[in-house]
Amino acid sequence: MRRLAGLLFILVSAVFSIAALSLGFALNSSSLPEPQIASEQNLAVVVNLSNPVQNLSMPELRRIFLGERSHWPNGRRITLVMMEPGQPERAVVLRDICQMNETDFNNHFLHGVFTGEVLVSPKTLATPVGVRKFVFNVPGAIGYLRVSDLDPSVKAIRIDERGPEDKGYRLHVPPRSSK
Amino acid sequence: MAGPAALLDRVLALASPYNSSLLLLIVFLVVTVVGLFVIRDLHTTNVEAQKMYAGSVQGLQRIGELQYEVQETRRSTFYALTTNDSNLQLEYADQSREADRLVNEGISEYLRQARMPHEIEVGRRLQLDWSGYLGVRNEVLASILEGSTKEAVNLDLKGGVPSFERVRQDLQEIKRLYDGQASQQLANVAATSRRTIFRLIGVLGITLALASASVWAIQRSKMLGAIQLAKLQMEFVASVSHELRTPLAVISSAADNIADGLVGGKDQLKSYGSAIQNQCRQITELVNQILLFASTKEGKNRYTLRPLQVSRIIDAVLDNTAELVQEIGFVIERRIESGLPCVMGDLSALSQCLQNLIVNAVKYSGESRWIGIHAFVHDSEERSSREIRITVQDRGMGIDRLEMPHIFEPFFRGAAVTAAQIHGTGLGLSLAKSIAEAMGATLSVVSELAVGSIFTLHLPIVEKQESEMASVTSKPDPSIRT
């Protein structure tokens, strides 16, 4: 009799344990975000809707952002749009595209404009909305925006055949610091 | 000329009993017509004014706003030239785009409301020209934002200025269209107002003329009535004088003969006395008739109504007139249906009424010297019940059809009667009618020239319970003093 009661206790405990584990997995998979994935956002490179360019390689992108290329294939002059220093988006572009720090980037342009090697001087805007509006208004403009700041007034181009929503996209920006 | 005047007088005589009502009706109709005209014209003017406001004034206001937004689009674009700050330049670009959005909405609204082909054509041209300008404006904005100020200015001078001028001209043309419409509608309102004033003056003139004509007609009708009355009264006085003079002459002559001792013997004296007696009776009769008529008109009489046997009334009448009838050798045929119910009335008054009819029959019977008096029950033509009819019939000269409506009027005497020099005051039938009506009865006549006349007294039958009543005092109404 005591053995039967012991077996029953083990059986009930096993059932409760399985139920508790199942519930735990369900909660994990449905509502709790993975902290590392959710904190980072992709940074899209955007151009005017009239711009025929759909894809750029990373080296081409680097040349554009360093002012070494002045015109698009359709003949439009390239206008580079940067955010103000200190913004995380700018830091990502400098780091991942230009592969420079702030000082090197500024020196590059100072030197390039002086020597005539750089034909484009970047426009500096304070906010992502400003960037979006600038790109919308200027047919030859190119800038960058977080994916969450995108809207249909601008076009996000693919980099090395990968769009900002695709896996393996290379430009990631840390979350905005909440003030 | 006498023909239309006579016709007018006849019309006025016919309308004279209704003149006040007629005047009121005319004034009411005219005022109603005037009111309707005025209300309609005011309504039209109001609608025209509203249409003018909605169609043109609001349209002009919209065009004014459109012109402002067009200028604002261009102005904001130029503001962007005044700074190198890209953030500020973007704000100006936003302002310019907001203004151009409002312009596009305004043009769409204009096209939605445009009805005339020319309006639609100008609207579409404006839409096209505005799109053209916006294309240049976008290029200019892009150049400004890129930092190419010189290029922006060149673009504007080359493409912006001419395309903007085209837009400005389109807007001017639309404004001219609205101005034209407003002027047209203003002219319509003015025309309607003028028409209203003319109508008012016209209708008021007609009103005045109608009112004057009505007043004139009433005055003339009254004057004719007064003349007619005066004429009748003169005739009455002449007639009464004549009626009085004949017996007075007889009495005077007889008195003179007696006084002069020309009358000798008892029989002759008796004959003279009888003549004086007869003449006095005639004078008394005449004076009684006149007094009776006067009292009837003053409405002083009261009747003692009670149920009466018809045979009793007729017998009383025949008794009163027996002497007269016998003197001139008349035959009176008396027929009374057996078992006639009672009638309600005043014996004396009803006797007087029938007596007047018999005296009339005697006067106008001519050579036939026959009078029929007949009483019977008959269905009433005016009431749903039955009634008793007492007819007085003669085979005399009859009454002219044209004189029939007037024979019951006081002092009226027919032309044939006057020509035949038959004595009378013209009061007998009028009195008979007044008495009948005071008893709740009516008097009617049927007559044919040279055949004779039948006067019928229509008396209501007394209900059983009423027949048991001893006597009733009637309301004070024109009738006979008892």
Overview of the molecule:
The complex is a heterodimer of chains A (179) and B (482). Chain A has helices at residues 2-30, 35-39, 58-65, 88-98, 102-115, 128-137; strands spanning 41-47, 55-56, 79-83, 123-125, 141-146, 155-159, 172-173. With 179 residues, chain A is α/β, with parallel strands linked by helices. The longest helix of chain A has 29 residues, at 2-30. Residues 4-38 of chain A have low confidence and may be disordered. In chain B, the strands form two sheets. Chain B has a five-stranded mixed β-sheet with strand order 2-4-5-7-6. A three-stranded antiparallel β-sheet of chain B has the order 3-1-8. The longest helix of chain B is centred in the middle third of the chain and has 111 residues, at 149-259. Chains A and B meet through strand 4 and helix 6 of A and helix 3 and helix 4 of B.
Unreliable stretches of chain A, pLDDT < 50, 5 or more residues?
A: 4-38
Greatest interface and its participating residue counts: A-B, 16 and 11 residues
Estimate the helix proportion of chain B, in percent.
Answer: 55-70%
Structural class of chain A: alpha/beta
Q: What characteristic shape of chain A results from the CA principal axes?
A: globular
Q: What fraction, in percent, of the residue positions of chain A are helical?
A: 40-55%
Give the overall pLDDT of chain B as a whole number: 82
From the alpha carbons, calculate the radius of gyration of chain A and give it in angstroms: 25 Å
The N- and C-terminal alpha carbons of chain B lie at a distance of: 53 Å
Largest sheet of chain A: 7 strands, mixed
